[in-house]
Amino acid sequence: MSRANRKMRATVHAAMLLVLTLALTAQTSTTSITGSVIDETGAGRPGVTITITSPAMIGERTTVTDETGAFRFTNLPPGRYQLRADLPAFASTTRTVEARLGQAASLLIAFLGTSTMPNDPPFTIVRVDYGTNRTRHQPAHRV
Length: 143
Fold this sequence. Notes:
Layout: H1 3-26, E1 31-38, E2 49-53, E3 60-64, E4 70-76, E5 79-86, E6 93-99, E7 105-111, E8 123-130, E9 134-137
Parallel strand pairs: 1-7
Antiparallel strand pairs: 1-4, 2-3, 2-5, 5-6, 7-8, 8-9
């Protein structure tokens, strides 16, 4: 084998090693929680403050639903999160949500508004979807 062939082979091997290393480091160790808050008519509910906390992260993260009622938390370590929904003039409500590695949690939260029960929270999680194939329907528990 000539010196040029050995050099070419070494260069190809080094390039393959670099590509493999980059591919392995590109694999993520985080997940996300996204969702929408809708009202009684099914329209998006803007202005709802969504806060998450977890022993898996330091502090808390907060966002406000946009004009379509959507919210998003990205780059989260996997774990159990306390998700709190707040809207001025209504009681805040909290629910535990699991954020799984490789399976983003997507929530549909219904804003119920005023309730006939004095201590009823104004929000309920209608559905939690994990990833693209697996769906877990939750009963109508309060958030």
